[in-house]
Design goal:
The protein is α/β, with parallel strands linked by helices. It has a single domain, classed as 3-Layer(aba) Sandwich (Rossmann fold), CATH 3.40.50.720. It contains ten helices and seven strands. The chain has a seven-stranded parallel sheet, with helices on both faces. Strand 5, helix 5 and strand 6 form a beta-alpha-beta unit. Helix 1 packs across helix 8 and helix 3 runs parallel beside helix 4. The radius of gyration is 19 Å and the shape is globular. 41% of the residues are buried.
Length: 282
């Protein structure tokens, strides 16, 4: 019971798995959420306690937090990592797709935060670490639903950081650049499945084809010079979990830092002109 306890969502692969293992190595007792029970076998052998959790399932959210708090007293560090990227023109996104994107990327993390906060407040300390993206600071065409969810998580985190500070709880945002992981593969898969049939009746046919090609190149499986690895992101998570005075935000990767700064300093018209030259547009 002397070790602090962490819960990492989306821990079966990618950033979540790397973060869970990083926290184990840092001395935490770590619970890692998986949707498929078979994915927990490898985690368990690496020292992570797997818990079955779909972050959109309220009954499981409550049950998992109750279980951990019964065993450990409190969740000292919550890492909200689970999420996916909806890639599709805004006009062509079904409302049900918007709901699922926000249920996964926004409402799941916020509800888990609500569930762990009473025990954190009671003990006088805690960390809530929300993995967003450089895409929570600027927007690319085709990613409106995804970017909107990350902007929302950033806004809620900013509010919560000010609301819980006096209780000894820190709220931290992790903002990675492009990471070669299962997340990128999922983004490409969801994008290809969600496109409207190409043809003369689809006003976004050319744009969708260009978006598909660009995403394939971006997440080609080959790490680019300025992009972080999952281990780079995991190290930022561990810093946020262990620093006596964590920063509000950790941008991870040179591309993320450059683009976030560039967007902040560039007028809208100039920024749009840059994006039209470097990213698909209509």
């Amino acid at each position: 019971m002397s070790r602090l306890t962490a819960l990492v969502t989306g821990a079966s692969s990618g950033i979540g798995r790397a973060a869970a293992l990083g926290l184990v190595h840092a001395g935490f007792s770590v619970y890692g959420s998986v949707r498929d029970p078979s994915a927990g076998v490898e985690l368990h052998s690496a020292g992570v306690t797997p818990v079955v959790l779909d972050v959109t399932d309220e009954a499981r959210r409550v049950a998992v937090v109750d279980e951990i708090q019964h065993e450990r007293g409190a969740v000292d560090v919550l890492v909200n990592n689970a999420g996916y990227a909806l890639q599709k023109p805004v006009e062509q996104i079904e409302i049900s797709e918007y709901h699922h994107q926000f249920d996964t990327n926004v409402l799941g993390p916020m509800r888990l935060s609500q569930l762990v906060l009473p025990a954190m407040r009671g003990q006088g300390h805690g960390r809530i670490i929300n993995v967003t993206s450089m895409g929570g600071r600027f927007t690319l065409a085709g990613g409106g639903g995804y970017h909107a969810s990350k902007y929302a998580l950033e806004a809620l985190s900013d509010a919560m950081r000010l609301e819980v500070r006096s209780f000894g709880v820190h709220v931290v945002l992790i903002e990675p650049g492009v990471v070669q992981s299962e997340f990128g593969a999922a983004a490409r898969t969801s994008e290809s499945k969600q496109q409207e049939p190409s043809g003369s009746n689809d006003p976004y046919a050319r744009f969708n084809a260009e978006l598909t090609r660009t995403l394939a190149l971006t997440y080609s499986g080959t790490r680019k010079r300025f992009d972080p690895t999952v281990d780079d992101v995991a190290r930022a998570v561990v810093r946020a979990a262990t620093s006596p005075s964590p920063r509000a935000r950790y941008a991870v990767g040179l591309r993320a830092k450059a683009l976030i700064t560039g967007r902040r300093l560039t007028p809208d018209a100039a920024w749009d002109a840059v994006l039209r030259r470097t990213w698909p547009s209509n």
